[in-house]
Amino acid sequence: MTPPFSLSGLLRLRRVEEDQRALELNSARDHEAIGAARSRRVRSELAASNVDPVSHASLASIAATRASTTELLSELSELEAIAAAHVEVAVVAHAEAHRRTLGLEKLEGRFDAEQAAEENKSEQLVLDDLSARAWHLAHPEETK
What is the rounded distance in angstroms from the CA atom of residue 95 to the CA atom of residue 113? Predict the structure, then answer.
């Protein structure tokens, strides 16, 4: 029986970590997409609203609404920038986790290849021994 890969526990942990980072990346991208959709919706609603002032009071109301809308759009832009920054951090974290997992996977691949070569070598020795015994049993006069 061949010994197991000695770093298999660490490899499992690294794979779990990579999966966790992938989930975090997907979540950050989802938040970014939701924020962008919200901004687009607000901008399209604002572009669609076309109110003509009919009095001084309605003009003042429109001006106040536009000022608060400008502030809202500014806040939405800041939230989009924060979401984009979170995505960048998540991309870097996922890439680092993947790099560390990949290194261990390559070691495991080499280990598996070496184990397969050793098993093939052992099997070939057994087959050679069996073949030699069979030949000696079939040709007893030639071995003397």
Answer: 27
